[in-house]
TrEMBL record:
<keyword id="KW-0067">ATP-binding</keyword>
<dbReference type="GO" id="GO:0005737">
    <property type="term" value="C:cytoplasm"/>
</dbReference>
<dbReference type="GO" id="GO:0005524">
    <property type="term" value="F:ATP binding"/>
</dbReference>
<protein>
    <submittedName>
        <fullName>Cyanophycin synthetase</fullName>
    </submittedName>
</protein>
<keyword id="KW-0547">Nucleotide-binding</keyword>
<feature type="domain" description="ATP-grasp">
    <location>
        <begin position="73"/>
        <end position="322"/>
    </location>
</feature>
<dbReference type="InterPro" id="IPR013651">
    <property type="entry name" value="ATP-grasp_RimK-type"/>
</dbReference>
<dbReference type="InterPro" id="IPR011761">
    <property type="entry name" value="ATP-grasp"/>
</dbReference>
<dbReference type="GO" id="GO:0009432">
    <property type="term" value="P:SOS response"/>
</dbReference>
<dbReference type="GO" id="GO:0018169">
    <property type="term" value="F:ribosomal S6-glutamic acid ligase activity"/>
</dbReference>
<dbReference type="GO" id="GO:0046872">
    <property type="term" value="F:metal ion binding"/>
</dbReference>
<dbReference type="Pfam" id="PF08443">
    <property type="entry name" value="RimK"/>
</dbReference>
Amino acid sequence: MKTYEEYLKEAGNVHLAYYVEAADILGIKYTIVVRSLIAKFEVGDKHWFIINTVTPLTSSPSATISKRKNLTNMVLSSYGVDVPKQEGLSSAIDAIKFFNKYKNIVIKPSQQLGGKGITLLPETEAQVISSFNVALEKDRSKGEVKVLGEEFIKGENYRFLVVGENVVGIVWRKAPVVIGNSKNTIRELIDISNKERSLLVLKSIPIDSEVQTRLKNADLTLDTIPEEDQIITLRYNCNLTTGGTTEECASIVDPYYKELAVKAVKALDLEFGGVDIIAEDITKPGKCGINEINYNPGLRLHYKADKGEKVKVAVPIMEYIRDKYANKL
């Protein structure tokens, strides 16, 4: 059996490497058609392709609904799935009205990648206007709705990876933190952390308005010197691209949330998806909300979890695809 590094060198892409490794584990023949882009997999006289993160499990209509967050919210709500209250914002004036209505809000592009253009908990009308303009600039959608206002849901963020009727992986997506040493300011601790992260080929923690808002809400500033071992949470956002980390946590998750994730994927007529659930206590049923479903989720969250047992989630995904194509007439 090859090492992951060997699969990565062969596939040229972290996502394809996971699927190629899974194919080897399952005895599925594979061919790298275009390095860093396309791989072909074969079972008997049946075959399928995976392009980067895109598997053959998602239809075009389902993909369109998933990548447009307003459509995702609308469809899930119609199926009785808990989602944040959400409105399309056509102008900065609409954004201000939404802010005055709900106060604790999120402003984000209708379609984007890696958390870009998202502002959590703007505090003034001026910040709301600025957040609207940033979201509009970062939006990638072709639809009429470019910017969304969304109710902010308090809680922790979890990614549920669903294939068919099963949840095959769950990670707790954590916001970046620094730990005090009674010597350095928070700004200096971020700089130290970023130097360490660069050695591990991890994204840096940016110092931006969200960091300042999170600190302000905790009565802290970038010049605060935290006490020894004091944990300082830096963001509300937990994306890996802004310094977030993950912990595999399937063993503690109440079945209620697993059933909810499967229900959400089915509501969008998907067979495979990454469901983002925000919940205050994942160990028991309670108030929660689904703020996004990824129709071609990356797997790195599960393979590169900072804590907990790492799960080779590509294996059950490839098993599902294999069985589907092997039984296809």
